[in-house]
Each structure stands twice: as C-alpha cells, then as structure tokens.
Write a sequence for this structure.
C-alpha cells in the first residue's frame, strides 16, 4: 500500500467513481468523477487534531460500526493517502452550514470547504476491474438473531475486535455487558451455500478466516472454549489442512459437523439449537456467536458492469471463462480479485499480477511511453564523518507498545554514544512517518538509522527506500525486531520484554556505529525466458511472455505437449478441454517468439537473475544433443499427475479405477460405461494416507463424473464416500445439482476410512453410514477412487536451481500471501501443479501471473545486485580454495595474482549467505553489512550495559 | 508528483484499490506502464486493511 502511495507511476484517485468507459482496447476513454475530500492532501499532516475537535459523532464503518469516530477522520493510521477526509453526509457544516470548528483548529490550514467535485477524462489502453466484494445483507443474518442480540456478531466485527488497533484494543468482549466471553461459537456458511439469500456458491474463504480468528482468540484467552459449526471444512489450499489440524490439536478448538438451526437469546447467553449427523438434537449455551459471513458480489456491481459494458454471472460477480479467467466479456477490460469470484488473498494477488501481465501484453507498443523514472538525490559521502545515529522506536499501534514500554526504550537509546537523535513513532511504516524520517535525517544530519520495530523481512526495503530518498546509502540502516522478539514472544512479561528491547536496541546501535555505505551494482539482463514444462501452465506462461515481446524457450520432458490437462475430456463448467488445449498448443507452436523443445530437460544452469546460462539436453531416439541457452529468467511449470496409491485394490481389480480413468471411460462409446452402481471414494490415499495434503480438485472431478454418469444412465446408483466435499466457489452449484439428481453423498471419518475387498470378480466396499448409524457393505459394479495429485519429481530441479520444496514435494514460494509465484531465488518463478494441485482456471491465472512477474526484470533491462555480498581481502587470502568448494552458489572464483591464485567473489551470484566468511581460516572474507567488526561490536554490546 | 496530463499513452486504469487493485497497479508500473488507480473510498487497502493477521501464517496484513 505504502509502496503504491510512493510510486511516481501510480496516480491514486480516491473518492472517485467511474462514470463512463468508451472506446476499445488500446484506446479507451474513461470519465471519472472525483468527489471532494474537503481537505488539501498536500497540506494535511495527519496529526489528528481535527478529529479531536469535531463535535459530531459518526459510527465508524472501518471498525464495522463497533466504535465511534467523527465526520472528519482517517480510517486507520497507515492509510494511503495519509490524508484525513470529511464525510459530507455527517459534517455539520456541509449538512447544515454551521460549525466549521475544524478550520481554525488545523494548523496547516488544510481544510477547504470550497472543494467541488472534479471530472476528468483519462485515456487508457486497458482497464482492470477490481472492486472487491460486498457484504451479505443483514436480513440474511436475522435468522441467527443478528441485530436482535448484541452478542451475535459477524466475523468481520469479530476480526476488528481481535485487532490490537481495533475498537477494543484487541480484547474480545461481549457487546452486551463487556464481559470476556468464555464460550464462543462460530457458525459457518452464513450467506454462502444458502439459497435463502440467493447465494448458492461457496465463498471459499470463510473456513480459513474462522480458523484464524479462533486461533487468535485462543491466543488472547486460552481459557476460552471455541466451537466451529460447519457443513464441510474447506481448507483445500496449499498447507491449509495443516493449519486446521493445528487449530484442533494445539489450540483445542472444537469442530462440529452440524447445521445450526436456531440461535436464541437465553438469559445472558445465546442458546444454539443444532442437529448432528446422527440426527440428535443439541441445545448449547454460548456467550458469543460469530457468524462466518460469506463474500457477496460488490455493491454497485450491476452499475459497474453497465458502465464498463461487460457481463456478470448469475450471482452478480464478473462473468469469465475457465481458460481465460481474467477476461471479461469486453475486450481490453480485465478483472482481478474477489469480483471474479470469492477468493482469498493469495488468489487475489495472483490474479492481479496476471491481469497486469495481460494488460502489459495488450499495450506492448506503448510500454514506457508514459513512464516516470524515479530519481534519487545524490548519495552523501559519509565515510569520513563521525557516526550520527538516529534511533526510531515503533509502537506498531499497541502491537509493540501493549507490552514494551516504548518511551523507555527510546529514552534509553537517546543516552547512548553517537546517538544524535531518538524518537517514538505510532506506526513507523506509515507514509507520513517516512516523511518524518526524511526530515529528521536532514535536520539532525543523521548518517545512520536504527529502527526498532517489526521484521526486516517485510519492512527493511521500505525504510531503505526512504534512506535513499533522503540521500543516504541504503546500507546505513539497521533494523531491530522488538515486535517478534520482544512484545510477541514475551507478551506476558512486559518488564522483561522492555529490558530485552533495550538490549536489542543497544546491540543494534553498537553495530550501527560501524556500518558503512555499500555499492549497489547493476547488471544488464538477457531478455529471454526458459519455461520448464509444456502443460497448460507452461504453455500459458510462454504465450504471455512472448506476447509481452520476449523470446521464450519451452522445455518439455516428454515428447508431447499438454501435460495432465490433455488427459481430461471436459471441465466441470462444461468446457471441451481437448479442443481448448489443442488451440493453445497450436497458438504456442505458431508464435515466432517461442521455441518449443520436446523430449528435453534442463541439465545444468549457472548464473543469476538476468544472466542465466543453461544447458538443455534433448534425447530423440538414440541421439542426444546438448544446447546452451542464455536467458534472463526461469519459469518452473513442471506440473503434476494423478497419484496411483497401492490402496483400495487399485491395480488389483478391474473394477477399481481412478477418476481420470472414469472420465476417459465415460467419454467412450462402450455400452456399459456408466454401470448401474458406482461407489466413489474421496481422499483415497490423500489427507493422511500416502499423501498428507488435499489436492483441491478431486471433489470437483468426482462431481463432474457423477453428473456425467447420471446423464448417460439416470438409473445408476451412485454413492460418494467423502470427508469434506470441497466443491468451493461456483462448483457448489454442481454439487447441489448432483444431490438433486440422486447422487448419494455419505461422509466418513478419518479413523474410519472405507475398506475395499475383492473375492473373485466381486468387489465389496465396507463403510460406516452415520445417518443409518450402522456398517454397510455393498458390491458395486465399479469403484472410482479420487486419488489426489502429486508433483513431478522436483528433486533434480530443486538441486539445480537451489529452490526449496515443502514437506509434500511442491515448490515453496517466496511468500505465501504476497509473493505467491516467486521463488526465494531471484529470477525463478513457479506456477501450476508444481506449486500445488489446483483447477484449470487457477493454473491459467497463476501461469499468467508468473509470466508477468518474470517479465519485470526483462522490461527493466537490468537488475540491481544486493550490496550485502562477501568480499575477499587478497592480502590475507592464502588461496586455500575452501571457500570455492563450499560456496553453494558458485559465486567464488580463483584469480591469478602474480604467481599465486586468490579467491574473488562474483558479486552478482553471491547470495550473502556467509558460509565462505565463517570457514575462511585466515578471516580474509568479510560480509557486506555483517563484518567481523560489526558483529563483534554487537556481541560485546550484549554483555556490556552502558 | 504534481498534475499529470490525462492523455498520456501507455496508461492503464485500475478500478478498485483493494489488495488486487494495488497489486495490479504495482506490477503494471514495474512492467513499464503508468497507472490510474481509481478508488471509491477515501483510502486504498480495501478489506485487507481491516484484517490484523492472515491465515495460515498469522502474518501482519498491512
């Protein structure tokens, strides 16, 4: 957010609405109306004085109505733009022409009631629609006593309660009498999977946020009893099941499969009536009920569609197709995020990148024409100056200051040698705090900055950018993490946490006294890409890269393209998979910018982002050829395949097949292809058997095939044995249709998986039916296993590229939420099944996102090399070569110095891991930003209290 | 930043400043395009700015 606020290439137009959108791709004319803020953004310093003086109360929408604000306010301190605004519907002056108290109060004279709405016409090449989602109407919540009893809250309200900067400073309280609730119930699927409010779809995110909120509530109050009432727990995302298990085992959160029929006020509590699978009714009292509300289509969706001239689907979300998930029905108008269909943050971020990449390809001719290049002031030379250190201690709202005495820590820092300035900051990451930081650097001639706040992992780049803006080298910066390491881990010992914060700050300052400027090198890039894998992900990524104008080498191990999708016949949505794949394949083969290499593998790679050099080995018959390719980036799209477990008689009986085999069979013409009785077993080999994870797509495939069976042979008796039916999103409609058509869905517990036995040609399934409450044994004509998906063996590639895999052998992205397609190694990207199993539309979006991200260094034409690299003091080096052998990145080479050979770092390849420095027998190697001198100073400061 | 003329070529408009809109805008600038980020409300951030921590890692959402 702050990054967007700082970019010279993003003009943020707030309080703005789209009035019309004419023209066509490449030449749209958009009319925008910008409503007044009544505050001059250039003058407002976000000091907050106006809010204090404003006499009128206003319900705070940002806090879900749980607190009161004033008509003149800011939603939250880190808001971008960091400018207050006046709500014209509540302001006494704007409504009744009175008051105006705020005008003289504002010291910077920022309040301007003369502002009028401004119309603007923008010329743009493409448009991305990302209006998000709306809230489920209150009427749909009334049946759970929402609005009738204050202790029934929505999950968003609960989210605000849990938030340390929320209305109750993170303390969960019953709204009725402010007591801490001891028993909390979560009710899932409120406003989702609910035809009562016309939302037949599953919102796909509620199970996850309910688990998160429950865990956070438990952290706040371990005594609190939390029960989640659900129909199916849909934690199908990558590593999501693990979090669910943690919630159950570590946090003691109870999960009950039951539909809650009624929530009734009952004395001071709320009484829940629900019935479990066994048809027994329960009445349970709770202190608080949280409704896990789904995601509705955004307010104004219909209007936006009318203005934008594109179509919506039946639920008023944007209409898209499986193979083009980001395209609306109007050419040049794209969609991203929850408006495309309910989805979580990583999916939204992925779609956003994908849409950006597609828009970039559409407007290739105009790339860079409107671009503003950011310039920085000249860097100050400080090597001869005495250190003047500025220490800034962050409150992080109350995230830090709730435990640590921030004022004491700042004051303590102020007394230290070479500290020229110290202060506190409410949110040091906010936009206005960056301005303050710059000012203070100038005012106090600071030449080193220490920020005691959160994690450098997330925030270091932001502060370093600010240093550059202030004319300082970005390495003159040290971050001390007093949030994770003090206020979080020592939440219950405020004094010790404060002492430890002082210790860490002292050590940070000690190091800062010795830090120096480091050079940032830039290296040119080879503007081409290697895409590994010729399945749908690889084909899509290569096509997008080529359309953005970059040469692509598509490397496929087998002799045909298409991957696992080529084995499918159709999608749940009814697309003809084979035709779509053929079309994609031929487009890729015709594209002049793409070289397709089948029967080929990556066998060696060296270099670094922008400058990779790879060897591709092709085996055709007896002929093996090797080709060296220089390229700037690598996209890993090596895919996956259906798993074949040695379970449930698969491979032993002809009557036991997988879902893919059934799909193939149903597409054939055999008379008995849809026999009279079929049992499908979900999670066969998954979620705790051979595979530990959920493969996300098997439930959809089962429902797809079940509907096909019913279409061919309506008399067929079909039983689906499942754990949780995870037909999330719009697939819920198909699940409902299958039930309506007579497919029987029976849940089983993990301790009680169904068993398959064989006698002669008869196969028998034994399972426990929780509704009949007895064991059932049947002999179906066919058993179909939903077996899950496994990645193609990642081991070689993982070693070659030094990219990590998770416990389930899927490649591990750099950040689960915010960098979902990037790998920790710069210049390497991942998409498709190699990342995790997922349906076609998600693969396409992810592949397009990977292509967009991969194009970034190629567009720039150069990459910046991190300055924190190792360097060798040639006078001390004895040329023993230990470092050369140990370096995992091939980043040290031996060079001749007169008669002897000495080690030398290849800065662009160095990852700054420090292995070489720690092993050098003569201490000849030092690490930029982590020199011996700096670390020693830090260690000494740990023991010595000033 | 100053006022920009509204007829520059190589610009893309993003309607909605939630996590998707902001991410799309940032990526577009990195890909060499100028972006107009049109937001109905007074600040960007959308629903994500209301969240404290995120599933499953409990990372800060801002």
């Amino acid at each position: 957010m702050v990054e967007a606020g700082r970019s010279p290439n993003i003009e943020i137009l707030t309080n703005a609405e789209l009035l019309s959108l004419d023209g066509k791709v490449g030449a749209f004319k958009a009319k925008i109306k910008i409503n007044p803020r009544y505050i001059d953004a250039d003058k407002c310093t976000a000091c907050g004085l106006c809010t204090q003086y404003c006499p009128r109360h206003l319900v705070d929408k940002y806090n879900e109505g749980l607190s009161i604000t004033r008509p003149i306010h800011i939603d939250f301190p880190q808001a971008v733009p960091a400018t207050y605004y006046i709500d014209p519907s509540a302001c006494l002056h704007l409504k009744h022409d009175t008051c105006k108290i705020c005008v003289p109060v504002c010291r910077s004279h920022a309040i301007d009631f003369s502002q009028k709405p401004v119309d603007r016409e923008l010329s743009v090449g493409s448009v991305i629609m990302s209006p998000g989602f709306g809230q489920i109407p209150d009427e749909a919540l009334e049946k759970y006593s929402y609005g009738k009893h204050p202790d029934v809250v929505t999950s968003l309200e609960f989210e605000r309660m849990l938030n340390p900067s929320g209305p109750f400073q993170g303390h969960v309280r019953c709204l009725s009498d402010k007591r801490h609730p001891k028993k909390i119930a979560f009710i899932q699927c409120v406003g989702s999977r609910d035809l009562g409010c016309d939302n037949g779809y599953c919102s796909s995110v509620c199970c996850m946020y309910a688990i998160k909120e429950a865990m956070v509530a438990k952290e706040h109050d371990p005594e609190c009893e939390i029960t989640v009432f659900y129909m199916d727990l849909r934690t199908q995302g990558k590593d999501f099941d693990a979090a669910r298990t943690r919630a159950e085992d570590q946090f003691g959160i109870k999960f009950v499969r039951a539909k809650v029929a009624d929530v009734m006020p009952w004395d001071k509590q709320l009484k829940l009536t629900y019935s479990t699978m066994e048809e027994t009714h329960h009445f349970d009292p709770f202190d608080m009920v949280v409704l896990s509300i789904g995601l509705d289509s955004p307010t104004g969706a219909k209007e936006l569609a009318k203005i934008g001239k594109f179509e919506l689907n039946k639920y008023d979300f944007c209409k898209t197709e499986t193979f083009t998930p980001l395209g609306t029905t109007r050419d040049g108008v794209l969609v991203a995020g929850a408006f495309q269909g309910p989805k979580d943050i990583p999916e939204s971020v992925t779609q956003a990148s994908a849409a950006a990449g597609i828009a970039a390809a559409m407007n290739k001719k105009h790339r860079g024409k409107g671009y503003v290049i950011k310039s920085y002031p000249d860097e100050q030379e400080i090597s001869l100056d005495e250190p003047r250190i500025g220490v800034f201690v962050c409150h992080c709202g109350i995230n830090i200051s709730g435990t640590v005495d921030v004022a004491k820590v700042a004051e303590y820092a102020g007394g230290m040698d070479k500290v020229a300035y110290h202060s506190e900051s409410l949110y040091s990451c906010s936009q206005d705090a960056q301005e303050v930081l710059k000012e203070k650097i100038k005012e106090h001639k600071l030449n080193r900055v220490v920020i005691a706040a959160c994690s450098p992992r997330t925030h270091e780049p932001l502060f370093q950018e600010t240093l550059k803006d202030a004319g300082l080298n970005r390495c003159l910066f040290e971050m001390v993490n007093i949030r994770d390491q003090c206020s979080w881990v020592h939440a219950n010992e405020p004094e010790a946490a404060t002492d430890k914060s002082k210790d860490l700050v002292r050590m940070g300052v000690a190091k800062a006294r010795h830090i120096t400027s480091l050079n940032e090198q830039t290296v040119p890039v080879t503007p081409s890409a290697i895409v590994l894998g010729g399945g749908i992900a690889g084909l899509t990524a290569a096509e997008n890269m080529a359309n953005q104008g970059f040469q692509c080498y598509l490397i496929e191990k087998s002799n045909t393209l298409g991957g696992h999708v080529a084995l499918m016949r159709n999608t749940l949505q009814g697309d003809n998979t084979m035709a779509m794949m053929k079309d994609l394949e031929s487009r890729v083969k015709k594209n002049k910018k793409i070289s397709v290499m089948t029967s080929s593998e990556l066998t060696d790679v060296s270099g670094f982002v922008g400058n990779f050099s790879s060897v591709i080995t092709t085996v055709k018959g007896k002929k093996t050829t090797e080709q060296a390719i220089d390229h700037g980036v690598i996209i890993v799209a090596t895919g996956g395949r259906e798993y074949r477990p040695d379970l449930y008689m698969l491979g032993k009986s002809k009557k036991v097949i997988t879902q893919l085999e059934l799909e193939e069979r149903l597409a054939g013409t055999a008379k008995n292809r849809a026999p009279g009785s079929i049992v499908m077993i979900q999670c066969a080999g998954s979620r705790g058997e051979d595979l530990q994870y959920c493969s996300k797509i098997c439930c959809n495939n089962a429902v797809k095939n079940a509907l096909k069976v019913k279409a061919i042979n309506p008399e067929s008796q079909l039983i689906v044995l499942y754990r949780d039916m995870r037909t999330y999103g719009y697939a819920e409609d198909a699940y409902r249709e299958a039930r309506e058509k007579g497919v029987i869905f029976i849940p089983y517990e993990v301790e009680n998986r169904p068993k398959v036995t064989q006698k002669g040609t008869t196969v028998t399934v034994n399972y426990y039916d929780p509704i009949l409450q007895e064991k059932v044994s049947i002999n179906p004509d066919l058993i179909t296993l939903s077996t899950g998906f496994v990645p193609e063996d990642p081991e070689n590639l993982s070693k070659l590229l030094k990219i990590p895999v998770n416990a389930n052998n899927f490649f591990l992205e750099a950040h689960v939420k915010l960098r979902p397609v990037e790998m920790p190694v710069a210049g390497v990207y991942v998409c498709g099944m190699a990342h995790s199993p997922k349906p076609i539309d998600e693969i396409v979006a992810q592949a397009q996102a990977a292509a967009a991200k991969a194009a970034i260094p190629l567009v720039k034409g150069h990459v910046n090399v991190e300055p924190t690299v190792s360097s060798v003091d040639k006078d001390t080096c004895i040329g023993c070569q230990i470092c050369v052998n140990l370096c995992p990145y091939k980043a040290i080479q031996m060079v001749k110095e007169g008669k002897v050979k000495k080690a030398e770092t290849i800065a662009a390849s160095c990852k700054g891991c420090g292995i070489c420095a720690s092993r050098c027998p003569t201490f000849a190697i030092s690490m930029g930003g982590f020199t011996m001198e700096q670390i020693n100073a830090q260690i000494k400061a740990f023991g010595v209290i000033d | 930043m100053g006022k920009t003329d509204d007829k520059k070529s190589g610009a893309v408009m993003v309607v909605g400043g939630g996590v998707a809109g902001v991410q799309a805008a940032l990526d577009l600038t990195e890909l060499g395009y100028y972006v107009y980020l049109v937001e109905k409300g007074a600040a960007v951030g959308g629903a994500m700015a209301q969240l404290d921590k995120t599933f499953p890692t409990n990372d800060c959402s801002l």
Observations:
- Chain B has one domain: 12-60.
- Strands of chain B lie at 11-15, 34-38, 53-54, 59-60.
